[in-house]
Amino acid sequence: MTRTISLITVIVGAAMLFAFPALGDDWAADQRSEPVVHLSPDSADRAAALGQDQVVRMLDAREKSQTAKRDAQLASAQPQIATTVTATSSGWDLDLRQVGLGFGMQEIFANFISGLMVLFERPFRVGDIITIGTVEGTVSRIRTRATTIVDWDNREVIVPNKSFITDRLVNWTLSDSTTRIVIKVGIAYRNDPRQAQRLLLEIALAHPQVLAEPAPSCWMTGFGDNTQDFELRVYVAEIGQRNPVRTDLQMRISELFRENDIEIAFPQMDLWLRNPVQLERPAKRPRAPADRAEAKPPSSGEAER
To answer: I want to staple 265 with a disulfide (CB 3.0 to 4.6 A). Which of 39, 181, 204, 227 is the partner?
Structure first.
């Protein structure tokens, strides 16, 4: 008995084998175990049409099954995506709060470390007179975060310790309370500069609070626009003596210079006209007759009447 398999049957069988491997295996086993029955052309065409219809239905069912499976997977993944987005947003919020907290703690930590450095290095002590920025006064308290300074107006100024590390600090009494006072004086050009220098030194040496060592000095520093410039330099033992001694010396300089006819010069300017213009007074306007009659004084007879 011969076996006849048409091309359509082969195609249908291959499609069924691809769609359902198990069914294809069974079909192949049947083909091996049972003989092929001869079919007429009409019967073969009907069988092929029926096989194609079955393949189409099976492929459609498989596609629907895969689509339903994908939809189920997407539906189950949506809560996970929402949870991930929410977690990411919460993470960003947490990171931003941490960054803000970090910036806020940075200054506190810097002041704390600076306070420890001030306590260990001791660039100033309680009772020292210091200048930091525009603040000048006496140190009253030193803490780990800030230092309290009492200024000359008796105000307590709280200065962060970071400023003492990063800014310029002047300690007037760190190792020696002796300070120098500089008084600038300018005299007129008509005065003798050597006489002025001698008088300035006499004034400094005569003051009881001016130290003899280091000795006072007086220097002529230059020629100004209107003055011969001098500097009187003296030393005092305590920071609190600076202003009283400065005041006494300046008052004594004014008195002694006046007694010796030495002028303390001030800025002045002379104006010279290269091409002077002759200024003429305006001519007097002649008076009217009525004005002259009113202005004429009465005679002696008229006055007696």
So the answer is: 227
